[in-house]
Amino acid sequence: MNPIETNVVSTPLTAKFMGSFVLLTIIAGLGVGVARILISLYAVQLEATELQLGLIAAAQSVGILFMALPIGVLVQRLGSLKVFSLGSVMGAALYALTPLQESAWYLLIVTALVSFVLPMRFVSINTVFLSNLKRLGPAKAGWFRGSHMMGFFLIAPALTVLLIQHFGYGGSFYCVAFLFLATLIFAPFCFQQIHQTAANAPSFQWRDVVAPLALLKTHAALRMVCALEFLSSVANNYFGFFIVVIAIQSFSLSESVAVMLLTTQGIVFVGSLFTLGGLAELIGYAKFYWIGLSLISSALLILAITPITFWMWPASLMLGLGLGMLHIANFMSFAKVGEQTAMAKISPILALVGPAGGLFGGFLGAAFGASLGLQNLFFPIGLAFIGLILVISRDQAFISFLKPDDSQQLAEGQES
User: Distance (Å, rounded) from C-alpha 284 to C-alpha 306?
Assistant: First the structure.
């Protein structure tokens, strides 16, 4: 077990840590959430083409694919405090540079550059979250994640519209930079800092970077959970970026009303993360997965075929509920695999798989948005979820992995 995990697991969760971590994750999620919506609306303002919109959406994840695993090694060597702080400062600087040029291609470049520093924040937060999940238990599996999503989905949509109205797009990007820096207030209370001298610091080796990927070959349950996380990220990121564009361009909704679709999904998403963890234990994770996947697939198909604005609202609600259930089950599954293997290796995998789905969702819009229509692309994503339901139903090994006895072992906490 690495030094970070040892320190986290051996000490109790203090009120100062829990309060600071909740506030930090809310502000961190708020900064990223405002940035995502702001970039989407700014791209429309710049009259970006479908190709440019898709590339900008994909650019928000491209750097994360390259940096997630190396940053996982850096967190083990330097400590999460240094890595998180550096990522926050660099991200703030890049967002402050965004309004310097009013060009869709310039926006694409800056968005891509930001994606290379975001893993410094994601991996640090994921490491602390997964390490503490054992003591929190299944009922609170979505608690810290819900804190992040509260800022990301619940507050960010309304705040973004408010910022644009009062400060314009340029001033709003400066506000995003401020939110990135504001997390540094709480970081010292949440993350561990490793003190090493140059003599005893381990050298950076390539095999340490790719070591987490070896788990995908040997752990079948991890492969399935990664597939679930990847596809949920495809749906979540595609909806989060393109639903505003679709609502404005195809349904002639105003910016404020279009953003409310995100708020509707976010309210249900965050609410499910805070409240449904106990239900997963009650009915079993296999049924919990099936219900969540069924809700997601149904919502995506409704979004794909409806010509009526009204049906976008219940579909957004269903999507938020299904994604919330899927997040709870996935994080408990990731944590179980981490207990069986090494948490420090699971954290970068989690930081890698989700953005990979976001990148794929962006490329879908870029490659097929103009020819097939952005709204129609919800249909194949929904079919993919239906296919995943059938795969899980036939995968007895994964169903066995999800048995209550296994999850109960995870919930034992300090008693174990």
Answer: 33
Q: Does position 318 have pLDDT exceeding 90, yes or no?
A: yes
Tens digit of each residue's pLDDT (9 = 90 or more) over 54-84: 888 888 878 877 887 888 778 877 888 889 9
Looking at per-residue confidence, does 203 or 266 come out higher?
266
Q: Is 79 helix (H, G, I), strand (E, B) or coil?
A: strand
pTM (2 d.p.) = 0.74
Q: Using one digit for the tens of pLDDT, what is the confidence trace for 252-282?
A: 888 888 888 988 898 898 889 888 888 888 8
Q: Rounded to whole angstroms, what are the CA distances from 164 to 31, 75, 156, 399?
A: 14, 36, 12, 47
| Side-chain half-sphere CA neighbours of 173 within 13 A | 21
The dihedral built from the CA positions of residue 255, 32, 228 and 281, taken in this order, carries a sign that is negative
Give yes or no for a contact between 261 and 316, defined as CB atoms under 8 angstroms apart. yes
Q: What is the pLDDT of residue 21?
A: 80
Token digits of residue 50: 């479908």
On whether the CB atoms of residues 270 and 393 are closer than 8 A, the answer is no
Distance of CA 69 to the CA centre of its chain: 16
- Tokens representing 58 are 């994909």
Bridge partners (DSSP) of residue 79 are 193
Q: How far is CA 97 from CA 106, 170, 176, in A?
A: 10, 9, 11
Closest CA to 401 of 224, 208, 178: 224
Interatomic CA distance for residues 14 and 17, integer angstroms: 5
Q: Which of 348, 365, 384, 59 is nearest to 228 (CA)?
A: 384
Dihedral sign (CA 272, 129, 335, 229):
positive
Q: pLDDT class for 205, splitting at 50, 70, 90? A: low
H helical segments located in 79-155? 80-97, 104-117, 119-136, 143-149
Give the residue, 156 or 17, on which the prediction is more confident. Answer: 156
- Residue 324 to residue 270: CA distance in whole angstroms: 7
